[in-house]
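Recall the central idea of this unit: under ordinary conditions, the amino acid sequence of a chain determines the structure it adopts. In this exercise we apply that idea directly, starting from the sequence alone.
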Amino acid sequence: MTDADRPTDGPHHDAAGPIRLLVVDDQYLVRTGLATLLRAAPGMEVVGEASDGAEAVVLAARTRPDVVLMDIRMPGLTGIQATERILAQAVDPAPRILVLTTFDLDEYVYGALRAGASGFLLKDAGPERLLAAVTAVHGGDALFAPAVTRRLVEAFTRMTDTGRADPPDAGPPPPALTTLTGREAEVLRLVGRGLSNAEAADRLFISEATVKTHLNRTMSKLGLTSRAQAVVVAYETGLVTPGGAGAG
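Accordingly, the structure predicted from this sequence is:
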């Protein structure tokens, strides 16, 4: 595990007991296959299966899972809309949303990250990668190095800037940054540029713990639920611009 993959933001779930999972996919074979795999894994418990976004919202409120495996493209209520509703209605601690997608560079994935999903995973990633991803997001770890999220967000920010419509179900515009202190804004800018907490600490000559404190305060002030969502906000508010300097 690299520095970029270490615990980042938000409250960690209680490690005691199995990881409670809700599996959401409109394709029966995919959904049951995922649920069967997860049920067979030690330390994991499938508390529900949903065939669409609306059912996912109801089951999430009823079963209070730790992690939701969310199909992104579904008829009716999409995975993006379901993610927004689940997180808006959740009792603390909110579940982590892990988006399942066929394509990694997908405007729907961008919309889900914008809505507060903790990360995304390709459906063909394989059992070991799936179980590792579930464990990572449950523990509060970054699913990907920050630069991976940065590349995805930057790609779709560029598309929007050149006249492309907003991503499907993109939701409300990002919050203004006027509530942030200068240091909090600087930490958000570095996170948006793809730096890990450790790299941002080196750049600012402060401790990694202080970076985490600033980032947690920033996320609280802006109502954000994941590091990926913070990267989206950094771009959409203009704090970071596509093509800007990276972590080098």
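Confidence is low (pLDDT under 50) at residues 1-14.
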